[in-house]
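Example record

Each entry pairs one chain with its bound ligand, pyridoxal-5'-phosphate.
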Amino acid sequence: MNIKTENERKIIYVDNNATTSVAPEVFEAMVPFFKSEYFNPSSVYNEALFAHNSVEKSREKIAHLLGDVDPSEITFTSCATESNNMAIFGAIRANSNVNRSQSSQPHIITTAVEHPAVIQVCREAERYGAKVTFLSVNKNGELDITEFVRALNVDTLMVSIMHANNETGVIFPIEELSRITKETNPNIIFHTDATQTVGKLKIDLNSRSGNFRYVDLLSFSGHKLHAPKGVGSLFIRKGTAIRPILIGGHQERGKRAGTENVAGIVALAKAMELSLESGSENGSGSAGASGGPAYKELLYLKNLRDTLESSIISKVPFLEVNGAKAKRLPNTTNLSCHYIEGEGILYQLNSYGICASSGSACTSGSLDPSHVLKAMKIPFTAVHGSIRFSLSRYNTMEEINYISKVFPEIVRNLRRLSPYWNQEKDCPREGAPAV
Ligand code: PLP
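Structure tokens for the complex follow.
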């Protein structure tokens, strides 16, 4: 079992959309930079050269893995939140009143289900005069392309739409949305937050042949793919006007000031190599311009996830898989158990050593219902009982079987205490299974 020990407590970690464990190979790659190779990569003496070269080699590796883009198009940041801030504020600051009509209000199109690292940035942009369209989703968590097309207008400065949702795993059709955007007006900047998909789905930014060739800006983060926290990146396609938001030294070609996190950058490149190296989404080939995530790993994750879902569905009545009808990430399942609280389920799972989540990591700890499930118009009795399992390559079938065994018991016990459930029991809806 992939069980971690923390004060001898054995755990099953199934919260990988919140963060992942650092892969052993990634950890090994970082170690020299905490020991003998601690130098500032900008320093001129010989000893600093290895740190400098390691940053540049990592940049080249990542550029190659994202579709043989130019290494200068990769900017290192501290996390995806910073990358998203840089993409949105950077575009607004560089482009106000460019490429648009005389309106002084830049228009941004995003969705109602983005991570707070985009939604709140857009809300802040509104305070500075931007006009933001938050596209709705249907009950499967999908966007309506017609609504998207209708939202594009002469004032549209940028589109910022995530690749896959962190809570439900629902995947948005970035290829199509970015193509439509550029066909409508090539000057509109297209940004995607790919924090949950780099290393999991095919992302090829090659400007001639890539499925993401119309994407100008792409954010991602190390700690979602088995690198440590504290490192992220923003892909900035050549010719995309961005003003820096972290201003100071000349690092990252003046795009992002601050001494580089050398160990983190090396780790990010290593982690991406590990996720992408052994095959493509189409079942063959190596990483690089035509490559994609390791296909075997995707199948492995999908098999674990589907086994977990089908086992739980067969044992727990009044349970829905949110986004089940949409295209989804293979590692994510978001379940709504009617009539009980997700927090209660989490605490019970915790007592069995199972680490899951009841929404995005940033919002668990608050009792606000998930903005994503609310946008999907999931019924009140189900939104509050939502739980997310997100798997990684380190999870095993043994762990899945264990969760499948204890989860129905937990739900049964919590429902016994639930007034809503008791109401259902006393006055069952038509077609309701026996309680
Ligand atoms: N965007 C998405 C889709 C995420 O899932 C997350 C983290 O959960 C973030 C952005 C923020 O990432 P970071 O923690 O690297 O800032």
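The pocket of pyridoxal-5'-phosphate is lined by residues 79-81, 115, 117, 162, 166, 193, 195-196, 221, 232, 360-361 (CB under 6 Å).
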